[in-house]
Specification:
- The protein is an alpha+beta fold and about 150 residues long.
- The protein has a single domain (about 45-149), classed as 3-Layer(aba) Sandwich (Rossmann fold).
- Helices cover about 25% and strands about 20% of the residues.
- It is built from four helices and four strands, in the order ααβαβαββ.
- The protein has helices at about 15-25, 30-35, 70-80, 115-125; strands at about 55-60, 80-90, 125-130, 145-149.
- Strands 1-2-4-3 form a four-stranded mixed β-sheet.
- Helix 3 (about 70-80) links the parallel strand 1 (about 55-60) and strand 2.
- It is globular and about 40 Å long.
Length: about 150
């Protein structure tokens, strides 16, 4: 976290639109967070984050890594803005849980298994990498890949 409390996350236009909607619908204390500069919505490119090195304690991405043309380079860029010991969390739906198999082989997006991303995390220099999966009782088909700088 930066001194002003900002957290980086996916910066796609869809994610920015989502968070604007969340804020409009009554995110608790949104006005105070924005006015005190603890919250900022910024659209950008994960391959070139507009923050100095070692700015954040935590970074996260929700369902955007599918669209990153060079995920290894992007994970390295996120690692650059994390402080030593900083945590990266990326949430995905594993490729075998997508209902529409026609997405497979798409030139627009790449589907992954958590284990595949764990390998890319390692290649990008993260440590203490793990893949967390909700219990089967939850019927939620997500995986969260976590790594520490």
């Amino acid at each position: 976290m930066m001194p002003n409390g900002l957290y980086p996350c996916s910066t796609s236009s869809q994610t920015v639109a989502f968070w604007r909607l969340v804020l409009a619908l009554g995110f608790p204390h949104k006005e105070a967070a924005i006015q005190s500069r603890r919250m900022e919505l910024k659209q950008g490119d994960v391959s070139s984050l507009p923050y100095p090195a070692e700015s954040f304690d935590i970074a996260f991405s929700l369902h955007s890594i599918y669209f990153w043309p060079k995920p290894l380079d992007c994970l390295k860029e996120i690692r650059r803005v994390l402080k030593p010991g900083g945590l990266l969390a990326i949430t995905i739906q594993p490729k075998d849980k997508w209902a529409n198999r026609r997405i497979e082989g798409s030139s627009i997006m790449t589907l992954y298994f958590g284990s595949e991303l764990a390998t890319i995390f390692s290649d990008a220099g993260y440590r203490n990498i793990r893949v967390e999966v909700p219990s089967q009782e939850d019927k939620i088909f997500l995986e969260c890949i976590l790594g520490v700088k």
